[in-house]
Specification:
By secondary structure, this protein is mainly alpha-helical. The chain has two domains: 1-49, no CATH class; 51-197, Hypothetical protein af1432 (Orthogonal Bundle), CATH 1.10.3210.10. The protein contains eight helices and no strands.
Length: 204
């Protein structure tokens, strides 16, 4: 590292890429040396430390996503998380409530699955499951008006997380489109986001 570099000594320079490795690399993963794989793994470890910042940036970007609602998708997520927190939810469910619609930044149609898989390595199985299937539960409140079965949630009857999914959909998410609700700002939830996404991720 040069004396003019601003990268802390205990951090990897992400901009260096393979150019920062002075050994044999190989043209394909099957030919990578053990030394080069260790070098890559070091970068992946450093990348994990950036996940909280990336999630916060993604959430902020949702303030530009309205989809015709009276509140932005960021405000909707903040309101859902605020309601969850005030209702006594645990940290994982609060953060899951905050992030449950981040999949909409890519696709509205399958946004629950996108968001759930993004959260899965860091949150409880309950929080993951609720986010993954929240649209089936939310459907009770509007599916009948668009020609869909409003009782899709019944396919999950008997599941151990069913009651929490109902509480999420009926008490927190469904009601979180009120522009006059006393909603906590993103800064309020930032410590929880950093706590959850700084955990060692679980392998699925």
């Amino acid at each position: 590292m040069s004396e003019t570099s601003t990268t802390p000594a205990n951090m990897i320079d992400e901009s260096a890429g393979a150019a920062g490795f002075d050994g044999e690399i190989g043209p394909s993963m099957s030919t990578f040396s053990a030394e080069y794989m260790s070098y890559v793994e070091g970068h992946l470890d450093e990348d994990l430390r950036r996940v909280p910042d990336r999630m916060l940036a993604l959430l902020r970007s949702m303030d530009e996503l309205h989809q015709g609602f009276a509140v932005s998708q960021l405000q909707h997520c903040l309101q859902t998380a605020t309601r969850a927190e005030r209702d006594g939810a645990d940290v994982d469910m609060i953060v899951a409530s905050l992030c449950h619609d981040v999949g909409k930044t890519f696709s509205n149609m399958n946004h629950p699955a996108i968001a759930a898989e993004m959260l899965r390595p860091w949150v409880s199985d309950e929080a993951y499951w609720v986010v993954k299937y929240h649209q089936d539960f939310q459907g009770r409140h509007y599916y009948g008006r668009i020609g869909m079965d409003p009782e899709l949630r019944r396919r999950h009857l008997g599941h151990s997380h069913y009651a929490m999914a109902e509480r999420f959909a009926d008490v927190w998410d469904e009601t979180a489109f009120d522009p006059d609700y006393d909603t906590e700002p993103l800064e309020h939830f930032e410590p929880l986001v950093r706590e959850v996404f700084s955990r060692t991720p679980r392998r699925s």
